[in-house]
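pipeline/complex-builder :: batch 7 item 3
reading input block
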Amino acid sequence: MNSPRLPMVESAHYPAGVPATTPYLAVDVARVRRNLGRAAERAAASGVSLRPHAKTHKSPELAWLQLQAGAVGVTVATIGEAEVFARHRVDDILIAYPLWVDRRAADRLRDLMTRARVIVGTDSVPGAAALGRFLGHTPLEVLVEVDSGHHRTGCPPEDAGEIAAAAHRAGVDVRGAFTFPGHSYSPDALRTAAEDERRALAVAADSLRAAGIEPRVVSGGSTPSLEASLDDPGPLTELRPGVYAVGDAQQWELGTMGPEELALTCRTTVVSNAGGRAVVDAGSKILGADRAPYSSGFGRVPEREEARIVMLSEHHAVIDWAGTPPPPGTVIDIVPNHACNAVNLVDTLYVDHAGDVREWPVAARGHNS
Amino acid sequence: MNSPRLPMVESAHYPAGVPATTPYLAVDVARVRRNLGRAAERAAASGVSLRPHAKTHKSPELAWLQLQAGAVGVTVATIGEAEVFARHRVDDILIAYPLWVDRRAADRLRDLMTRARVIVGTDSVPGAAALGRFLGHTPLEVLVEVDSGHHRTGCPPEDAGEIAAAAHRAGVDVRGAFTFPGHSYSPDALRTAAEDERRALAVAADSLRAAGIEPRVVSGGSTPSLEASLDDPGPLTELRPGVYAVGDAQQWELGTMGPEELALTCRTTVVSNAGGRAVVDAGSKILGADRAPYSSGFGRVPEREEARIVMLSEHHAVIDWAGTPPPPGTVIDIVPNHACNAVNLVDTLYVDHAGDVREWPVAARGHNS
């Protein structure tokens, strides 16, 4: 976090402090610290550990802010992301993914274990057998992934014990279960998804116990369901929110974060008023193309809540401004719909530290495997 | 293109020639060459130049294949992309974008002009004035962007002369007009968009002539409208297709390219059969999150045309296989919906040259400004 001050743009059209040609992603670190602090306090009060998902930011600097705020480790989605964070001295890493392990993946995990505690997921007997074949009797820890209603990966919760037993027989150290209640990404499902998560994890924990394995880790969490899970953690020992650190337009529109909590914006320049609208130089190649069914557009403009981003190309966003649009040359901020995919499009985050602009590398960008 | 042979994966689950841990993007260069050759032949027969849009591939190797096939230069969307291609000895570059130029952008363009012919767009009198203020009386060439029905950027075609005259007064060398008929991205609009393009460019050319400026470049093109524009180019002197080189699921589903022409695939591994489906390790962080209204899902599986990608997360795609899904460990190919955004997510394309796998850097990835 010891980055040089950046040269400022000279044009009168640019506000002071614009460190680069637009479009670029900016982070308000004071807001990040507030978001992290609030979640840490709530988790401590609920007796639940936080293991934030670092796929959201892919930034070692941000991961370290999370660890300093009390997180027990980080969550990632791929071996490649784990390697990056381990190189940056993060030494407790959950790869919350049902890895299909072959020799190459096993070699990488073995190397990773020399630098960090490593926990991975599995959701099937064949997957558990592959883990045992290549990595049995190593320090690798495993959690069984269960489906709590998102219907992506994860076994039925009542099957967790069978998979855990297969893993155990193959020499794998099963520590518990995890789920991702991703169906929380719907305005009506924030609390019901948390209920589903509690119920599924309770069933999974019982299933593990029936198979003779005491679940020491019972892990859940998503940003939309975070508050509800903290209100009533049930069997949860750990939560893995990701977006909560920086927020995005999805969280704003789901009602889980307010505009004053959103810490990640895309700074962009109006390049055209064609058609009486504001067309800016940010498109899907920096905002991401995500658009959830409940989204009002392809991102949001905090300074103009009535504005709607009605059209997105790779390097254009067309904004119905709901009034006279700002003229070409005006710099505005857009909050991306989905922080995780926007961050993964850039190599650098421009971070405002009380007026100083620092560069944070998106060190784990593109580490998809 | 002088890359080393890559180490092969040893697992019996992987087919020979898999150069890396999945997911990764693979290119079939024989198909690319056929796609380029066919377009070049058709363009030559129609008397139209090709200036392919390099934002699709961001690869100097692929740009050079296009130039070797007769392209007059390349098109890009940003100054940053132009800088990358100029560094790779591409010396004729159109930035098909209504740039809003400030001092920093002007300095970069000035530097670029020492290495390449540089053409940029403008779509307003203020934009033209800014170009003149910072870059008047330089070798910079300018095309007026007109709106032919996509309703993104571009002035009304009949206003082209007024903008060109303003640019000319400001010391800018106006060479003609361009448009992007992006409304061709609809199954019913392939031919009508080409008609709109011809009509708009004819009006723009007349408007330039009325302002005393002879249009030497009249530029259009998109992949969906390419065939129709080549059938009847009207006033067009140049076409700028991008996706035609590699294809994608959008082109397949629009009916403009057949599966045997698609040269870009995401190689991915089945990691789970949860819910009786195939869940693979490719998600929006390598396929992109694009999903057009006419798309059948989040990409297509050529080996199983009935399969539908029904759900996409950052590192998971859930495939309804329409039959018994392949077991975990199976490697399959997915054609991304939108090639341009998928390529922009990786640093390397793995290119099959008759069995040899070479690495092509995605050198212009992330150059958004």
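note: Chain A has two domains: 48-241, 250-361.
queue -> next item
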